[in-house]
Amino acid sequence: MPSSAPAVAAERLTKKFGPFTAVDSFDFVVPRGNIVALLGPNGAGKTTVVRMLATLTEPTSGSARVCGHDILREADAVRQAISLTGQFAALEPNLTARENLVLMARLRGYAKASAVRVADALVERYEIGEFRDKLVKSISGGQRRRVDLAASLVVQPELVVLDEPTTGLDPRSRQVVWSAVRELVGQGVTVLLTTQYLEEADELADQIVFIDHGRGVARGTPAQLRAQIGDHRVDVVATDAAGFESLVRTLGPVFPLTLAPEKRTLSVPAPREVLDLAAVTQAVAASGVPVAEVALRRPTLDDAFLALTGTPTDAQDNQLEVSV
Amino acid sequence: MTTATIDVARALPDALPARPNRAVRYLRETVVLVGRSLRAVPRVPERLSDVTIQPVMFTLLFLYVFGSAIHIPGMRYQDYLLPGLIGQSLAFGVIGAGVATATDFATGVTDRFRSLPVTRLSVITAQVLGQMIEQVLGMAIVIGIGLALGWRPDLAGARALELVGLIALGLCAFTWFGVLMGMLVRSSDAMQGLGFAIMLPLSFLAGTFVPISGMKEVPRVIGEWDPLSTLVAAVRQVCQGTSSSGSWPLEHPVVAMVGWCLLITAVCVPLALRRYRRVTAA
Predict the structure, then answer these.
(1) What is the CATH number of the domain that holds A131?
(2) How far is CA A294 from CA A266, A283, A299, in A?
(3) Which of A17, A71, A92, A185 to mutate to test the interface with B (most CBs of B within 10 A)?
(4) Stretch 223-242 of chain B: residues touching chain A, C-beta under 8 Å
(5) Do A239 and A221 lie in a common domain?
(6) For labelling, which of A21, A88, A175, A284 has a CA lying 20 to 30 Å from the CA of A51?
């Protein structure tokens, strides 16, 4: 039964794989009714945290309670309270979308006939109808993620755990997942999601926890973190050194500039986003100095890490995966 | 059937019946999961072919291509070959069970099941049972083809029961072995490759197709002590009343096969259960 205990309360949660420490004394609280995003680059330990909380792997040390139940001693109660959607949509590839939903419903305890009704309701609810009778191995990644999400909602769990629910998804499927997440929270479900996308965490979460090298490096509401990370900015890139100099002279008195002479780039904070972009563009146009680029930039995950920890992330491939 | 009674907006909470006790849940979940495995079989052509086309191919190949050059004193080649193929099919169960298990672990399907409030034993029981049923299907095909092509086993009275018992024991042992291997290897391709690399030579040395006694010394000695030889010799002894010699296991093939199967089961079941509990996919 739902209790007042937090959805997740982890203390000094640690997981070692041989000499490698995947999760390192991680303290973590997910309040009821919230969306909490666990944000970090590839290999930061997000999935390992989720796997421990979902009772799929045991911590090396430390403890956690999920919906009031100890993950080691009351694993069955934890599994009843939660519902996990893994990073690699774990459906049976040789069953159809609908058969997968029926299977999940039956494993949750529904009798056959009602499992079929539940599956059909989910098919309708998550717009699975057009591919419900296709084998899961032959549908697209976005469709699969939708089925996966529906499969984890054959009962209403207290906590939904989504491990990188939108990684590799097209924008439309991402929107479907986002609206499903918002709707869940509207029904009183708590959501814990992991993501590599700052934008996604910002968009959905009430609380964001940054994780890197298995450690929680920063946490707060999106607004608090934004205040620390810095907002959007407008980057003006000059065509040459002389242009850079004259832009500094023209824009300097008007805007608070951050300069990167080696990249011939002037940065202007843009808390009003497009409005600031317009103001800067106008000023540049009025100056008559030719420029290579004027662009509104969102802080990337790398910017965020730099701002919060003073060290850049060392995942080389991360930059590619962070949306700007 | 009114869909309206299900409250879609609240993610269908009220339709869930009360939770039965552990034993009932275990049985129910096992049945549901076995159903899932079997339903998938006809949709994976390569998995189906392992238990259908492959034994048929071996039967036809040896009976009509190589068989004309093989002379077994005192018996027709069909009667020599078919018991051998039954033994081989039992042993090849390792590959099928291993590949299916490795696939489930690699794709995250097992994790999905393990994250549900199901009895964890049901997941692995269903894996083993599903595989056994698949192997029985393959076995039935081998036996059917054999009978159609002139195999005449001598299974009067208790010997039919003895054969069924041996096959059941072999299925159990090699399926558990395969499930354990699948969890250790964790890649279905590697499992397929490794399985054939080990089982194919062992099955050729096991007197499946030609008598061990006629082999050169090195393969002969390997064959005499090859566990698969005892399977082949035991099935052949029960079906055709033959005797074999060369080593203690070949002189007492039924006892040796029962011993091997019990040993494999006794080793693999606890290891597989332990592995299953501890397994942590990356």
Answers:
(1) 3.40.50.300
(2) 10, 11, 16
(3) A92
(4) none
(5) no
(6) A175
